[in-house]
Amino acid sequence: MAAARYPASMQNPFTRANLGHQLEAAYFMGWLNLVFVALIVLPAVAAGSLLGRGIDARLAQSPGGVAGTVSIIDCQPTGRRQSSWRCDGEFTSDDGTVHVARLQLFPVFDERPFGTVKARVSGPDATIATSPAGLSWLVPIGGGLAFAGLTVYLFYKCYLEPRSRGPAQSTPSPRRRRRR
Fold it and tell me: Where are the alpha helices (DSSP H) in the chain?
């Protein structure tokens, strides 16, 4: 199969020469780059945070996850109306081999829990315990992927998209004749 050729009016944004021109243009933008970097870094940080939480929750619910109970240590009201509860606790596996001193329960509870709660963790270095059933990992992973896509899109739009060379020149139609 023949390689795709770009018309002379359209440059490939991923060639070494074009990336050099893009970096040169970014250098001359000066302090305005700080705005673009902030626009790119903020969704990247959100993506990393959400993906980390979602992957940990998914690993906990996989067959390699460890089942056990969490002894509730502390609960704080959360949410817009302070109607949900975000709780921390101490995890002990059912067989007693895994013990985590303090971790956060995910997702939040509608009613304040007391005593112990059944949960699963991804391993002895876990920071999050999830409920044994449900798809609580799906929302953070979906949100993380959306923020990662937004990061890639913003990076492309700010730094890699070829700049236009002005409005397109219209050519006269051969059918249309000029009247005098």
Answer: 16-29, 32-61, 138-155
Q: Considering only CA atoms, which of 119, 89, 121, 117 is closest in space to residue 103?
A: 89
Bridge partners of 88, per DSSP, are 74, 104
pLDDT in tens, 109-139: 778 888 888 888 888 888 888 877 677 788 8
Greatest alpha-carbon pair distance for the chain in Å reads 97
Domains of the chain, residue spans: 33-157
Residues 6+ positions from 101 with CB-CB distance below 8 Å? 90
pLDDT tens, residue by residue, 96-108: 888 998 888 887 7
**CA-closest candidate to residue 66, choices 105, 89, 99, 88:** 99
pLDDT for residue 148 is more than 50: yes
Backbone angles phi, psi at 59, to 5 degrees: -65, -35
CA dihedral 141, 145, 147, 148 (to 10 degrees): 130
For 71, residues 6+ apart whose C-beta sits below 8 A from its C-beta are 89, 90, 92, 115, 116
Q: What is the pTM of this model?
A: 0.59
* Coil vs helix vs strand at 154: helix
CB atoms closer than 10 angstroms to residue 88:
15
Of 97, 94, 89, the C-alpha closest to 128 is 89
